[in-house]
Amino acid sequence: MRSAVTLAVAYLLLILQSTVLELAPMRMATPSLGLLVVLHVGLSSKWTISSAAVVAFVTGYLFDLVSGAPQGVHAFVFVLMAVCARLLTTRVAVQGIVLGAATSFVASLLASALVVIVRAQVAPEGSACSAGSTARWTARARAWASSADHARSGIRCDARSRAAEMGAPWR
Q1: Shortest CA distance to 37 belongs to which of 21, 13, 20, 15?
Q2: In this structure, are residues 154 and 127 in contact, taking their beta carbons and an 8 Å threshold?
Q3: 10 Å Cβ neighbour count for 170?
Q4: Residue 100 belongs to what domain range?
Q5: Quick one: what percent of the chain has pLDDT higher than 70?
Q6: Sequence-distant (≥ 6) Cβ neighbours of residue 154 within 8 angstroms
Q7: What total of structural domains would you count in the chain?
Q8: pTM value > 0.70
Q9: Looking at the domain assignment, is residue 68 inside a domain?
Q10: Helix (H, G, I), strand (E, B) or coil at 128
Q11: Is 19's pLDDT higher than 50?
């Protein structure tokens, strides 16, 4: 029951983070509210490590779905952060506002670095999933489709010249 309530709160915080804070009149850094839930679960002695990992995984997966990130990136990072938080509580007594805020700050820096590293491994810049290559493949498909239309109507059209008109780079 406690896990379901925590996941419901995490879901509401993720919706709040992705919608309300994005509609703010000025651009500001938004806190990772899902990470705060994961840190609370990981640092609390009331949770077992397995239940903390499950809550962290589901929260991270919901974060991936809400944010549009590749699926599994934040889920993996949030599970790692919950386990690291649990290991930290066995060595250091994280109590009080100042130590809790410092722990959250360091954890957010570590989580951000891990997200960048994992995303680089999941969808590297030169892969077929990157935005530049997607635009190139879309331009090539349009050029091919238009050359096929011209070939059917009896008008000859070179696909490379058609793509050059569209501004698509051919390699």
Answers
A1: 13
A2: no
A3: 11
A4: 2-122
A5: 68
A6: none
A7: 2
A8: no
A9: yes
A10: coil
A11: yes
